[in-house]
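agent: user wants the structure for UDP-N-acetylmuramoylalanine--D-glutamate ligase from Fictibacillus phosphorivorans. delegating to structure tool.
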Amino acid sequence: MKNTEFFKGKNILIVGLAKSGFAAAKLLHSFGAHLFVNDKSPREGNMEAEKLEQLGIEVVCGAHPLTLLDKNLDFIVKNPGIPYQNPLLSEAIKRNIPIYTEVEIAGMISDAPIIAITGSNGKTTTTTLIGEMLKNSEKTPIVAGNIGTVFSEVAAESTPDDILVAELSSFQLMGTERFKPEISVFLNLFEAHLDYHGSIDEYGKAKAKITENQDSADYVIYNADDENVTALMKDSRAKHIPFSVTRKCEGVYIQEDALYFQEQKVIELKEIVLPGKHNLSNIMAAVAASLLAGATKEQIRHVLTTFPGVKHRLQYVEEKNGRRFYNDSKATNILATKAALSAFQNPVILLAGGLDRGNSFDDLIPALKNVKAMVTFGQTAEKLADAGKQAGIETIKRADNVEEAVPLAYSLSHAEDVILLSPACASWDQYKTFEQRGDMFINSVHKLK
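agent: tool returned. relaying C-alpha cells verbatim.
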C-alpha cells in the first residue's frame, strides 16, 4: 500500500455503516486515523457498530447529530447512497469539510493499476467481461466496486502484479477528488438518479469525474455513439479510445461483420455468444480496455465465444434440441424487456409476468412483433396476455409460475426458436428476489428432457 501516512492522525468521520463504510472504517483505523463513525440505524443489533467499538472506535447510532461536525474534522467518508441533501452533509458542505467516498481512499492506496468502468447501463456486464478477458495475462485481475469486494478493501491487499477492475456508480465517483485510474470506461448516459443529482447535467458531471485527473499517460474509452458522453469527454487529457456500433472510428468498430480494434480484426460477430446491440457496445468497451491492459486476443476470443452473460441479465442458459434458452429475470420493467426482445432475430417464446404495480403494458406491444408465443404467470398474467393479443400473438398460455412456464414454453417451440424469460415485472408476488426467479428458470430448463 502507498500513501497510508497521509491518513495518520487525521480526524475522519465515517457516515453510513453499510459494507463500504465498515470496510473504510477498519482500513482507516489501521492507518492510524482518529475515527468517528455515524450510522442512522439503531445501536441494538448493529453488529458492525459493535465490532468497530471493540477496536476502540467511537460510534454514534440512531441519528445524524450535527455535533459530530465539531470534531475538527479533516474530511468525511460517506456511504455512496446517502444524498448530499442529508442535513449533516449539507452542514458539512457549508463548513467546507471535504466529503469523499471510499473510492477516493482506494485510488490513493492501491499498488495495482486501475481500470474503472461507469455508465448508466451495462457496467456489470462490461466489468465482468474485462475481468474474464484479463485472466492469464501478465497481471491478475481483481473485480471490485459495485460488484465483487469493496473497492478500498481490495486496493489495500493489491500488489503491482494485480490489476483492479472496478465498477463505479455516479454516487461513488461524485465523492472523489484525486482518483486517477490508468484506464477509464464511460459506456453511456441516460436520465437516471435525478432525485440524487438534481439534473442530467449534474449526473453527467459526476460520471465524468472518472477521467477528471487522467493525463496523457492514461486512456479513456468512451461511447462515440452517445452524444452526451462524447461531449463530456472533450476535456479529458487522457488518450481517447472511442467505440461505435454504427461507424468506423479510431478505437473499436464493426467492419465486414467483424469487430476491429484500431485496424486489428478481433472476432467475427457471428462467433459472439452474448446477444443484443446493447451488449455489443459493452463488448467493444471491454475489448479496448482488455487489449490496452495486456490481454491476449486468444483470451478475448475465448471469452466472447463462451461467455453466457452476467447471471439473470440476458444470460444464455443452454441449447436443447435447437432451442436456445435465455434468463433475463433482472428485467423487472417494460424498458428492460423491450431491450431483451430487440436482441433476437429468431422467433421468441416469451415468459413474462410478476408483481402488479398498476401499470399497463401498452408500451411493450410494439416490441412483441418477433414473439410467436407467450406464457404468462403471476399477478400480471392477464394484463400481459391482453398486450400479446393486441400485438397479434395467436398462441398465449398461462402458467402458475416459472417452473410450470418452462416446459409449457418448450412444448410451443420449434428448433431455432429462442425461449426467453424476461418478466417485465418485479418478482415479489411469487419470489423473494429476481435472482430466485431466475434460478427457478435455470433449474427448470436443466430438468427438461
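agent: one observation worth passing along. The chain has three domains: 9-100, 103-306, 315-447.
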